[in-house]
Amino acid sequence: MNYYSLNHKAPNTTFENAVVKGLAPDKGLYFPESITPLPKSFFENIDNLSNTEIAFEAIKQFVSPEIPKDVLKTIVEETLSFDFPVVKLNENISTLELFHGPTMAFKDVGARFMARCLGYFNKDNSNEVTVLVATSGDTGGAVANGFLGVKGVNVVILYPSGKVSDIQEKQLTTLGQNIKALEVNGTFDDCQAMVKEAFLDESLTSKMQLTSANSINVARWLPQLFYFMFAYKQLHNKYEDIVFSVPSGNFGNVCAGMMAQQLGLPIKHFVASNNENNVVTRYLESELYEPKPSVQTISNAMDVGAPSNFIRIQEIYKNNFESLKNNVSSYSFSDDETREAMLEIYNNYNYVADPHGAVGYLGCKSHLKNNPEAHCVFLETAHPTKFLDVVEDVIKEEQPLPEQIQAVMGKEKEASLISSYEDLKTFLLKR
Ligand SMILES: *Cc1c(COP(=O)(O)O)cnc(C)c1O
Questions:
Q1: Domains of the chain, each with CATH number or no CATH
Q2: Which atom, in ligand 1's list, is nearest to the CA of 247?
Q3: What is the pTM of this model?
Q4: Is there an atom of ligand 1 within 6 Å of 98 CB?
Q5: Which H or E run contains 211?
Q6: How many CB atoms lie within 10 A of CB 153?
């Protein structure tokens, strides 16, 4: 599959090149040249397909012929070595648990898939790359874990000092090997800006091949479309109008859901659920797109002021505001509302949600007010113990730590503190 730049000022390129480069030379995000819907029989027969079979069929057009079919089968199988259960809360609301991977974040899937693609492209050691990634919380751990030990790939992770949870920080600063963490004196937007500047700095890119592992990278972004298919498989015999409420930050996840819909998955509607960083909610109300600096919330992985994937969403809906609005709603919720929702979910359904999932739950409730016939699935994007302070403070009950979390808690943090782009550049050049 070839990819074009959404800035339309760079040549089209292969999947391999899109993954290795991350961003097009004109700074645009890459988008696939075509999307061919899967045959109806695929969806009719979905009950008989395993998760890896579903994923293989869904992704193959986007990665072939650069990744041969037998290699792709292995990549998909290794990527998806855990469960994606749907848990029903009531007749109208379920949650899709995306936190059963090694770092208990939904980003595990994209990170593991992308790492394996890069590993394949570097098979003859000719393609060494440095993955540069900014994280507002979960990306860092998932990327660090997904790329750990992959030959020919060095990973440098930037995270905002004091703005990620202790567990998140441990997950991205304790692995060693080919993974380095940089603690940035600033916000997530500062981290993201530094990463973008590095990609555009020729004095750097002439010396090393840099790529990103944020959802701007097609190999991180596209595999997220699997989730929606896995949920559909579990729900389509019970419910007709399936709606997904996606807690959104950079809008990669919800945009991947829209790709699943483009492939023919019968999804009725999307709800993009936001915390107070609500540029898209405001856009759908006013048709004015006004990014703002991010504000800090308890759902910190969604503290994004200028969501990078929104441009892909615009492309999917051909820049048609009405068709976008018909397919997507967006709501924004405060931290207090989020805490109340966590308590409500716990009291009513004996279910412990993390703050991001709780924002998704609130999105479902808002949507159901005018669409009572729908079945709304909110994506539970992180395990609640990754936000232990908030969760225990709200539900007033101690949470047992899962194995994956316990394993990192005792380890020593290793990170270098940086304050400016110059610091980042110095760090990269001296390695
Ligand atoms: C990254 C993240 C999100 C937001 O996903 P986007 O694809 O950036 O919209 C939501 N919840 C959690 C826990 C995350 O880590």
A1: 85-105+220-399 (3.40.50.1100)
A2: 10
A3: 0.94
A4: no
A5: strand 210-212
A6: 23
Across 209-237, b (16+ Cβ under 10 Å) vs e yields: ebbbbbbbbbbbbbbbbbbbbbbbbbbbe
Residue 136 has pLDDT above 80, yes or no: no
Residues in the chain: 431
Which residues are marked as active site?
A: 107
pLDDT band at 342 (very low <50, low <70, confident <90, very high): very high
b/e code 348-370 from CB counts within 10 Å (16+ = b) = ebebbbbbbbbbbbbbbbbbbee
Rounded Cα distance between 251 and 273, Å, is 10
In this structure, the number of other CB atoms found within 10 A of the CB of residue 310 comes to 23
Residue 45's contacts (CB-CB under 8 Å, 6 or more residues apart) are none
Q: Over the stretch 248-258, which tens digit does the pLDDT of each residue have? A: 999 999 999 99
> Closest ligand 1 atom, CA of 386?
13
In angstroms, the Cα distances linking 239 to 167, 267, 281, 328 are 37, 11, 27, 19
State the distance from the centre of ligand 1 to the C-alpha of 309, rounded, in angstroms. 12
3-state secondary structure of 238: coil
Q: Tell me, using a 6 A CB cutoff, whether residue 381 lines ligand 1.
A: yes
271-285: string of b/e by CB count within 10 Å (b at 16+)? bbbbbbbbbbbbbbe
pLDDT tens-digit map of 16-42: 999 998 889 898 999 999 999 999 999
Please give the number of the atom of ligand 1 that sits closest to the Cα of 137. Answer: 15
d(CA 229, CA 255): 14
- Which residues are within 8 A (CB) of 93 and not within 5 positions of it... i.e. 6 or more apart? 361, 364, 365, 368, 375, 376, 377, 378
Kindly report the protein residue whose alpha carbon is nearest to atom 14 of ligand 1.
301
Cis ω before 65 (30° cut-off from 0): yes
